[in-house]
């Protein structure tokens, strides 16, 4: 019988900066038995897996891929892992920057 072990982050989420319109993947490695349930949050908002936010958990690697990042996607992202033995979470900050080109082009049109 494998003893219950609470979730633990082998490697946590890391802060990232991307340019608006790029795709971005946040990932972390988690152990625990039984295999933990993974939930993702931006600020305090629970993110469901959709075509724009693809969430996977395979071989201990939890990932969320934002297909096309927008400035409003910036914020604190948290991955929470929970099983019968406990829970753990890891957080990072995602900064989505508007590219300089887009800003200057908009100013020229104004």
Describe this structure as you would to a colleague:
The protein is mainly beta. The chain is 9% helix and 57% strand. The protein contains one helix and nine strands. The chain has one helix at 100-109; strands at 5-11, 16-19, 24-33, 37-42, 45-47, 53-58, 61-66, 75-83, 86-97. The strands form two sheets. A five-stranded mixed sheet has the order 2-9-8-4-5, with no helix packed on it. Strands 1-3-7-6 form a four-stranded antiparallel sheet, with no helix packed on it. A hairpin with a 2-residue loop joins strand 6 (53-58) and strand 7 (61-66). The protein is elongated and about 70 Å long. It starts with a strand and ends with a helix. 15% of the residues are buried. The model has no long low-confidence stretch (mean pLDDT 93).
Write the layout of secondary structure elements.
Elements (H helix, E strand, L loop, with lengths): L4 E7 L4 E4 L4 E10 L3 E6 L2 E3 L5 E6 L2 E6 L8 E9 L2 E12 L2 H10 L1
Parallel strand pairs: 2-9
Antiparallel strand pairs: 1-3, 3-7, 4-5, 4-8, 6-7, 8-9
